[in-house]
Specification:
This protein is an alpha/beta fold and about 250 residues long. The protein contains 10 helices and 9 strands. The chain binds SN-glycerol-3-phosphate and magnesium ion.
């Protein structure tokens, strides 16, 4: 089984995270998948940004849930990364889905629902509706740190693929399996490294955020389903080298 390379917030190491530019770059380097984060604006639009607040990625203090889409669109979501990206904007989920259609993306789209700090009533239904409205060539995985959100997504349509995100907890894989009926686990890499020493997961694991070259090699060798990385190009190169090495 090949370990898929999923670009975390787009190609975050080379472009401003969660922007159309970062997703385009992830597609250009032929990432197997793209991960993005969604929140709801004050007027109920599904927007793609990591934080609940706008300060870190736009330099303007604000709370996403208290700002309209028009207000969010005024912000510069690229200069914090580099002045070359001063024109980058916070995209809506629909804009990202349109980009994926335009380029004929056929990988994995991992939509992380950021409901662990803010409830965002109605976000699950909206996200599902937007995704379903597209005739997609790609598969969709919904992930969240909030298990209730995932259950909500599953109840809407039992074909929905859900994956539980977690950072560190004391549960081992068997306990997790019994607690959470999901299709995959998305653990933090430190937890995964520790557990994989002794246990074989019986569900696909997509590990985040794996940036160090040795860690990338480690998880590819461990045959995890995917790594979620800020460095998709680097990870793809490493994987290609490992395939060649295996054949020698
Ligand atoms: O989905 C993996 C990863 O994105 C989870 O953490 O904080 O980067 O959204 P975060
Ligand atoms: Mg995320």
């Amino acid at each position: 089984m090949r370990t898929n390379i999923i670009a975390h917030r787009g190609s975050r190491s080379t472009h401003p995270e969660n922007t159309l530019e970062a997703f385009s770059e992830a597609i250009r380097v032929k990432s197997d998948g793209i991960e993005l984060d969604v929140h709801l604006s004050k007027d109920g639009e599904v927007v793609v940004i990591h934080d609940e607040t706008t300060n870190r990625t736009t330099g303007v203090a604000g709370i996403v849930a208290e700002m309209s889409l028009a207000e969010l669109k005024e912000l510069d979501a690229g200069s914090f990364f580099s002045p070359n990206f001063a024109a980058s904007k916070i995209p809506t989920l629909v804009e990202v889905l349109e980009l994926l259609d335009q380029v004929g993306f056929n990988g994995i789209l991992n939509i992380e629902l950021k409901t662990d700090k803010t409830a965002y009533v109605g976000i699950v239904q909206k996200v599902y509706r937007f995704v379903q409205a597209k005739s997609r060539n790609y598969s969709v995985v919904y992930s969240s740190f909030n298990y209730d959100t995932l259950i909500e997504m599953k109840k809407i349509d039992d074909q929905n693929q859900i994956a539980l995100l977690f950072e560190t907890n004391n549960r081992n894989l068997i306990e997790l399996d019994g607690c959470y009926p999901v299709e995959a686990w998305h653990p933090h890499y430190k937890w995964a490294k520790l557990r994989l020493l002794n246990e074989v997961p019986n569900l696909p694991m997509r590990v985040w955020t794996v940036n160090d070259s040795d860690d990338i090699r480690y998880f590819i060798k461990a045959k995890v389903a995917a790594i979620i990385t800020d460095y998709p190009e680097r990870a793809l190169e490493i994987r290609a080298t490992m395939v060649v090495e295996e054949k020698v």
